[in-house]
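hi! just following up on the protien thing from before. the input was this:
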Amino acid sequence: MSVRIGSGRRTKVSAVGTVLVLGAGMVARPLVRYLLDLGGVRVIVADLDVERAQRLITDHPRGEARSLDAEDRGAMVSLVKDADVVVSILPPAYLQRVAELCVENGKHMVCTSYVDDALRALDAPAREAGVLILTELGLDPGIDHMSAISMIAREQEAGFKIVGFRSLCGALPAPAAADNPFRYKFSWNPRGVLTASKRPARYLENGQYVVIPGETLFEHYQLMEVENTGSFEYYPNHDAMCYRDIYGLGDVRTLYRGTLRYKGWCDTMKAIGRLGWLDEHHLEGVHGLRYMDVTAQLIGAPAGADLTQRVAERLGLASTSPVIARLSWLGILGDVIVPEGAETPLDALCALMVGRLAYSEGERDMVIMRHEIEVEHEGTCERVVATLVQHGGPGGDTAIARTVGLPAAIGVRLLLEGRLDLKGVHIPVTPEVYVPVLAELDGLGIRFTEHRQEL
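and the predicted 3d structure came back as:
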């Protein structure tokens, strides 16, 4: 069944103010257009590429595009001072800098990035300044938190004990667009995808803690079917245990967060990592080399050796295996030249994958999010499964842009309307935030279907 968390009707708009959007990248358009649709809101979009910002604003009378180098503190301060709310969709490396400027200048902030220890340290200064820094308000993190905690609260209020919780998410090409050997295309920051591939993971499985080092992450994947969608594999994502207290799951026996991909991704990324292509150490003179030369250097293959065979031997695979075929298709065994600006293997890999794993005109992406909650009550055990599947529109907004940008935009609206009585650093796990945001998303067609089964 379709789960409608709220009425889905937008209340009468009373939002007034100036919003500064820092960044005009791949997920910015739905956010900016939503804010411009609020009749009393002025929107300034600032980006290093002012033409990209202007394309988001078009000729809207309440929109303005500005050129901004995020390294220019003086220019950033000037823009922040002119805003009531700042939205940062800049790379995470700039998150702390923007947050500090917002606290210093008494401005609220919304962003979609993960909160870290440095940002948490701003909680007390933000409270003293009367500022709300609302972070993790996108898709993952964002919709994952809000939908999960809404389900958990509902089950607990009904008298059920939560004994297991799994949450999975994937940003993928729609099946018709999954037409390359990787069955993957980039709909958000490519470097973010690749650096996430190196993070260690931690979760709880049947009462046992499991810790996965980053270098073996892709060895720990499982398979699953998503109803009416397809077959996928999933692997652990970062540290699930930090959400046990946040979600109110102190007695839970299983707690897992994972990433969804089409089949074949994990074996291929494991190979890429083992070959050294995810390394971020400086390689002297990498620019101008062929990708095959860099691969040979990374594995220590001598000049003139059969590189495909050497790579297969390093990986313990047959030279005719699907993984070797994918690596060859990607180009790391070929004679394409590493572009200027690439100083590390990861830099060079990003540049190659951006070109090879790109969406063509009119292709659609797909977002899948799935929660599985196991509950007990009076001797019975049930599994509650909630699934969100969103497709991008051909020639329109991508699914990832809508599911990342719209939650942040709704959070801005709540702030401008004075409906959030919060100060300090927060993620969206309080009813004050997640109830209205989920209700608004429901009205925009971003909703879960849900079913229960007895175990």
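The first helix runs from residue 28 to 36.
Residues 1-13 have pLDDT under 50 and may be disordered.
cheers
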